[in-house]
Amino acid sequence: MQEQQSLQVYKFGGASVKDAAAIRNLAGIVREHAVHSQLLIVVSAMGKTTNALEEIFQLAFTGQDFAPPLATLHRFHRAVAQELFEDKPAENEKLAELLAQLEQHLTELQQNPAPADSYDQHYDQIISFGELLATCIVARALGAQWLDCRPLLRTDHTWREGRIDWPTTEWNVREQLPDMLQRGPVVTQGFLGGTAAGQTTTLGREGSDYTAAIFAYCLQAEAVTIWKDVAGLLNADPKFFADTVRFPAISYQETIEMAYYGASVIHPKTIKPLAVRQIPLFVKSFLAPTAEGTRIGEGRHEQLSPAFIRKDGQCLISFESKDLTFISEENLEVIFGALAQVRLKINMMQNSAISFSVCTDYSAYRLEKLLGLLREQFTIHYNTGLELYTIKNYDPASIGRLTAGRELLLEQRTRQTFQFACRGREVSGLL
Ligand SMILES: Nc1ncnc2c1ncn2[C@@H]1O[C@H](COP(=O)(O)OP(=O)(O)O)[C@@H](O)[C@H]1O
Ligand SMILES: N[C@@H](CC(=O)OP(=O)(O)O)C(=O)O
């Protein structure tokens, strides 16, 4: 009798596919660790390709010359493919086709100025090429099947933050994937979805972790592993904090909160679909694939050690009523409505008698739209270039460590969580 194979979802992010050596390393992990499983491999754009595409898109959308940065992007992808498939030029045909399509889209956009309010929609059509190109190369390198996820992962029309239509997506995935997986590993794109009309959407920056969770949910996978350049989920980002410690095991609940506050190692939307179907999430290092990593799953904890989360690029906006009337529920309704309309997410908020303050991710474009909506009714002040720090499971020592020498512009504490916004400053050494 044939043994029933377990189904695993692996997700490889930008750092794990940043060049040909990284893709060879990925292939080694797949060979070593997935021999007894069916395997769906979700892949993000290579290295910093998404940022590069954002710049190229911005140039094209504003009618400027995008040729030099596009040429750099072409060269980079071609060089990686050449290094991996040097003796098989035909392997690069699909890649050449995608690069030509990208150039054509950009040229059309540059030559036919689109209305400003279609920016997000066009953004998705262009930015998605990062994942299409990367998966094309990785699938070839693995000799795996390439799957375009866009017809399967159905979203609405919320450009840049597509909302998943779960019933349709689950039906599509179950219809198509099991047969493919039976035949061998499948490589597909993170971060992308598609509307009913066949237009591409993206799921929010760094959303490929979420894609892995969506597929795992639909396929009722045994586990998801996201392969990162860190040893697992740590109590802080080692790029900014000294003496970090790894959590060997941690609950969905703790993780969702850390991700929500900005621990960029896991996209915040990733946890819920996994928790609903009790699918464990492993965070492992692609640099040390046999090391233990972190297991995220069911369960509650005794008090954990403090976790530190830093979010930069913040903006603190204060609204004051113009006639000294109190900030009432009616006023708040107007402010929240406007924030939702311009899609500015609130990371922290506080109100006093006549003023209401929110800390949000900064976007010049969205802030300008917000001011346009609320300027008449409120006096509005804002500061940009701020940092937001969150300490989960804080104690006096951890608060002292982060607040020493800083002027706090807004501060809040609950039983578990201490948060403050302050002016950003040059990082010299680790915190
Ligand atoms: N609590 C944390 N634990 C581990 N890594 C963290 C944490 N918070 C932030 N990070 C950062 O997340 C990075 C990995 O996530 P990311 O760069 O999104 O990976 P990828 O794009 O390759 O999927 C690490 O290099 C680290 O700097
Ligand atoms: N490439 C997309 C999606 C993503 O999730 O990337 P990564 O897995 O490298 O964070 C981005 O940079 O936003």
TrEMBL record:
Pathway: Amino-acid biosynthesis; L-lysine biosynthesis via DAP pathway; (S)-tetrahydrodipicolinate from L-aspartate: step 1/4; Amino-acid biosynthesis; L-methionine biosynthesis via de novo pathway; L-homoserine from L-aspartate: step 1/3; Amino-acid biosynthesis; L-threonine biosynthesis; L-threonine from L-aspartate: step 1/5. GO terms for molecular function: aspartate kinase activity. It catalyses: L-aspartate + ATP = 4-phospho-L-aspartate + ADP. Coiled coil: none annotated. Its EC number is 2.7.2.4. Residues 7-285 form the Aspartate/glutamate/uridylate kinase domain. Keywords: Amino-acid biosynthesis, ATP-binding, Kinase, Nucleotide-binding, Transferase. Pfam families: AA_kinase. Belongs to the aspartokinase family. PANTHER family: ASPARTATE KINASE, ASPARTOKINASE. This is Aspartokinase. It comes from Hymenobacter lucidus. The lineage of its organism: Bacteria, Pseudomonadati, Bacteroidota, Cytophagia, Cytophagales.
